[in-house]
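Notes from the 1:1 (GR / supervisor)

We went over the backlog. Supervisor wanted to see one worked example end to end before approving the batch request, so GR pasted a single chain during the call. The sequence is below; no edits were made to it. Supervisor asked that the structure be written out right there so they could see what the output format looks like.
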Amino acid sequence: MDTKLVSFGYILVPSKYSPELGYAGLKVLISGKPTQRLFDVKTLHIPTFDGRYYHQTQVTRHELAPVGTFQVCLGQLTLETYKGEHLRAFSFGGVLQTTVEMDNLVCELTSSAPIFKLQDSAGTAGGVIADELMDLLAGQQARLPGHEDELYSRLAKFEAYPLFLAGMVSLQKRIDSIPMSQRRQNFYKVSSNIKRAIQTVRDADGWDGHSPSIEDYLTKEDAS
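Structure output shown during the call:
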């Protein structure tokens, strides 16, 4: 087992992009009782999708079979320690694989899209984009009828990477729609980070910058 994971409790896998854009994956070690790890994870709260329904799944050492696979959907995930500390992140979806090693539960989240940290990342492109995406999704959720999880249930049916591109397109459209007279210092900070992220993805992945937006995907679900 990775010695860093054993001592620290979780690992954020470095981004595949240069300059860095979020993280490429997440590994978490969960024990059934407190240990001496720096970030001693007790519970992983993560949004999952079973093919029909969206769930807020809680993963602990004693409430899960030794081996399991979950489809993770777009949304916020949280690591909670025995001391009540929290680390929050945002993913566009992926696969969570769980195994038991040395009586610990090892959880590994892999995703085709970047995973963004929601704290301790002020000023970074990932931090700015994560904040803007959460705000964007909250606005979209407020416009949908029915259950409060309707937004995530709909978007869970799409793959992570297309949702990531859709998020970038939606944020760019949002920035472009702000009148010149209302553009303040924070506008330029957000705008430059989004443009830099889009250019990074275009350079690395050969993306042409065109994609359906988050709003387009939600409209597609209405049509279906």
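Supervisor's comment: The chain has six helices and seven strands.
Batch request approved.
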